[in-house]
């Protein structure tokens, strides 16, 4: 016997059970069929009359059920019956659960252009470069002597003096930027006491962790193990940044480190948002990068040149960026100032080469397409892109081609690269650039592309921001970050409405 129905009802059960041992008098049994006279036949005839009355009444509703004999069998044998709906019957679905919305309520930065989000962004709008000669150590014998170096930095009021002396700079930058983001988000001591700390998490990413602490330990070991910093191992590992901030805050929610080279920050943002959407956390995603070197020395402020034909490589920078991510209703309940809404994002892998992008740019295109689909955003809605654009010949061009494939038909599109002024902050790049994108949403101004004097041949320069800041009412902002190993990431922000 085969029964087919899109819903379950007593009628279906009766039809199947009653016809299991029925002898049909005619080959084409209909709803008006009369069974042979017998005790069973009389009962079935009464059942058939009730059934016809039921169907007559049921047909006035949304659907009807018809029963037909699928086989003609001799007396005493079993008959197979198919029970099918005459019309499509709607299946009752579970109510759709409204997805939690994620918003940005706090920002903290430590960059070569300032340690306050507004100071940082105002410098970007004015085209100020943070790239200069390295002063932190003697690099006179190095072929590269410039970087986006942080010249002045203080942890006073943010990190305990004892820890400040022992920690690597990557942790100091992260802790300072993280606490500034909390202060900027209005997380006072009173609010902190009211938080469900089991649902407050910290995600920290670093490209390489505490390289200076690790190097100092190796040098000390050459003399004696007794000379080594006893905290050299924990202060060098990438996970310790998130751990230290969580210890300081007493936050017991999701806490781990991500390291996907220069795409690290965006991976952290996406994972932090997903924890909130799933109800596993209500707040923080943090991002950090380590200190690094640059590529060229002649006229440092002109060294980083995304999309310019005369570029010869990227300039390394140092710093940190932290976003305070919060579930919308939670933010509204505590009266938080909402800077922007996080719409979603995605990540992919080129699976091609350790340092070179895929020649067809398919990994980048796929990442952007997936980000748009995940966020439910159309290509036409995206009118501002803060590109990865590191000032490398292959990388800049492949990203540009991918952007044109996705958004080339959008006449409102504007594209810039924050790296033209602060260099490449490795693991922190995505977070700092996300803050730049959010500031563009807040202020209605997008910063220039500095040093873009002779764009690559074939580029539609009309989509690239010029040497001066521009007015733009940002509808949706896309921020890209790509890392060695083929890690691609794209995230989307929009004005909160």
Automatic annotation (TrEMBL):
UniProt GO BP: fatty acid biosynthetic process
Keyword terms: Acyltransferase, Chloroplast, Fatty acid biosynthesis, Fatty acid metabolism, Lipid biosynthesis, Lipid metabolism, Plastid, Signal, Transferase, Transit peptide
EC category: transferase
Cellular compartments annotated: Plastid, Chloroplast
CC terms in the record's Gene Ontology section: chloroplast stroma; mitochondrion
Domain Ketosynthase family 3 (KS3): 99-495
Enzyme Commission code(s) on record: 2.3.1.41
Coarse class of the protein's main subcellular location: plastid
Catalytic reaction equation(s): a fatty acyl-[ACP] + malonyl-[ACP] + H(+) = a 3-oxoacyl-[ACP] + holo-[ACP] + CO2
GO MF annotation list: 3-oxoacyl-[acyl-carrier-protein] synthase activity
Pfam family, one: Ketoacyl-synt_C
Signal sequence region: 1-25
Gene3D superfamilies membership: 3.40.47.10
InterPro entries with a match to the protein in the record: Beta-ketoacyl_synthase, Ketoacyl_synth_AS, Ketoacyl_synth_C, Ketoacyl_synth_N, PKS_Beta-ketoAc_synthase_dom, Thiolase-like
NCBIfam families for this protein: PRK07314.1
Role of this protein: Catalyzes the condensation reaction of fatty acid synthesis by the addition to an acyl acceptor of two carbons from malonyl-ACP.
Family per similarity comment: Belongs to the thiolase-like superfamily. Beta-ketoacyl-ACP synthases family.
Protein name stated in the entry: 3-oxoacyl-[acyl-carrier-protein] synthase I, chloroplastic
């Amino acid at each position: 016997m085969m029964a087919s129905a899109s819903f379950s009802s007593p009628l279906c059960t009766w039809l199947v059970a009653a016809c299991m041992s029925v002898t049909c008098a005619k080959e084409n049994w209909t709803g008006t069929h009369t069974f042979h006279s017998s005790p069973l036949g009389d009962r079935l005839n009464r059942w058939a009359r009730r059934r016809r009355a039921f169907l007559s009444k049921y047909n006035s509703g949304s659907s009807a059920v018809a029963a037909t004999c699928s086989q003609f069998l001799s007396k005493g044998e079993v008959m197979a019956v198919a029970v099918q709906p005459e019309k499509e019957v709607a299946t009752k679905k579970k109510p759709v659960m409204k997805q939690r919305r994620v918003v940005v309520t706090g920002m903290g930065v430590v960059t070569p252009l300032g340690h306050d989000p507004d100071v940082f962004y105002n410098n970007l709008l004015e085209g100020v470069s943070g790239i200069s000669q390295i002063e932190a150590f003697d690099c006179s014998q190095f072929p590269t002597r410039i970087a986006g170096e942080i010249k002045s930095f203080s942890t006073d009021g943010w990190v305990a003096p004892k820890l400040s002396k022992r920690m690597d700079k990557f942790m100091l930058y992260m802790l300072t930027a993280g606490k500034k983001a909390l202060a900027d988000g209005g997380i006072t001591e009173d609010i902190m006491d009211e938080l469900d700390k089991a649902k407050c998490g910290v995600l920290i990413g670093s490209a390489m962790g505490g390289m200076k602490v690790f190097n100092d330990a190796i040098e000390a070991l050459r003399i004696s193990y007794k000379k080594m910093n006893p905290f050299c191992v924990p202060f060098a590992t990438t996970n310790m940044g998130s751990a230290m901030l969580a210890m300081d805050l007493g936050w017991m929610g999701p806490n781990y480190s991500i390291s996907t080279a220069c795409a690290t920050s965006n991976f952290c943002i996406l994972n932090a948002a997903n924890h909130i959407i799933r109800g596993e956390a209500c707040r923080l995603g943090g991002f950090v990068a380590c200190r690094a070197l640059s590529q060229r020395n002649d006229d440092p402020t002109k060294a980083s040149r995304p999309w310019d034909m005369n570029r010869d490589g990227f300039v390394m920078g140092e710093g940190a960026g932290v976003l305070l991510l919060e579930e919308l209703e939670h933010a509204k309940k505590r009266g938080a100032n909402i800077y922007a809404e996080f719409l979603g994002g995605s990540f992919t892998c080129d699976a091609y080469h350790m340092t070179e992008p895929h020649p067809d740019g398919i990994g980048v295109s796929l990442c952007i397409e997936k980000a748009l689909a995940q966020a439910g955003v159309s290509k036409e809605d995206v009118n501002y892109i803060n590109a990865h654009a590191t000032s490398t010949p292959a990388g800049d061009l492949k990203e540009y081609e991918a952007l044109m494939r996705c958004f080339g038909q959008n006449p409102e599109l504007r594209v810039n690269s924050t790296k033209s002024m602060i260099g490449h902050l490795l693991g922190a790049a995505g977070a700092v650039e996300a803050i730049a994108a959010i500031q563009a949403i807040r202020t209605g101004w997008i910063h220039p592309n500095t040093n873009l004097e002779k764009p690559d041949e074939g580029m539609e320069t009309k989509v690239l921001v010029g040497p001066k800041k521009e007015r733009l009412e940002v509808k949706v902002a896309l921020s890209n970050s790509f890392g060695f190993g083929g890690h691609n990431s794209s995230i989307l922000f929009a004005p909160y409405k």
